[in-house]
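Is this the right way to post structure tokens for a design question? Let me know if I should format differently. Anyway, here goes:
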């Protein structure tokens, strides 16, 4: 059985992510215990709230260096994905610098902010997260900040402008949308992370 650990960032709706894995039949644990995090097979870095608050909590819990040194697969969700980049405009705070790119406020194109609801996602064909998912499927987003398309983008969405719906580099993966709120496509993505992303 794969040992899946949800990193307790102290500012996320952790239970909804745990329930999503429960529904798929996977056991997960929510913790900020450094030894449990280091020994996990797969890790989830969730996030709801501001980058500033999340980075403060990670610093308080001495998690920053631990996360930066992880070699097993890590999936960042929403703010968790943004924390994987170098810097966030939300509070003008340096983030974990796991994947190059910066998080910026979505520009005003006349659409309401935050983006809240379903949006299409176009992904690259060789990303294991999207195995078995139909191209241009809908996922559920809630965000006012986004990472622009870059060399680590493995999926793109558009909300007035194109932005990274998913990024990946080595063992670090991030999705801007909420798979735990994205119905069968989100459930399949979480299952793919557990079963298709190599250790």
């Amino acid at each position: 059985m794969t040992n899946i650990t949800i990193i307790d960032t102290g500012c996320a709706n952790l239970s909804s992510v745990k329930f999503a894995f429960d529904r798929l039949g996977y056991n997960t644990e929510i913790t900020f215990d450094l030894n449990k995090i280091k020994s996990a097979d797969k890790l989830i870095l969730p996030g709801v709230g501001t980058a500033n608050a999340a980075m403060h909590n990670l610093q308080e819990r001495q998690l920053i260096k631990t996360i930066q040194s992880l070699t097993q697969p890590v999936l960042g969700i929403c703010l968790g994905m943004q924390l994987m980049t170098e810097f966030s405009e939300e509070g003008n705070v340096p983030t974990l610098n796991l994947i190059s790119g910066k998080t910026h406020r979505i520009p005003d194109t006349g659409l309401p902010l935050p983006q809240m609801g379903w949006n299409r996602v176009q992904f690259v064909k060789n990303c294991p997260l999207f195995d078995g998912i139909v191209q241009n499927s809908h996922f559920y987003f809630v965000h006012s900040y986004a990472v622009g398309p870059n060399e680590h983008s493995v999926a793109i969405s558009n909300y007035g402008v194109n932005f990274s719906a998913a990024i990946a580099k080595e063992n670090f993966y991030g999705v801007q949308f909420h798979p735990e709120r994205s119905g069968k496509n989100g459930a399949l993505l979480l299952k793919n992370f557990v079963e298709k992303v190599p250790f």
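Format looks fine. Someone answered above. Worth noting: The mean pLDDT is 96. Residues 7 and 42 are 10 Å apart (CA to CA).
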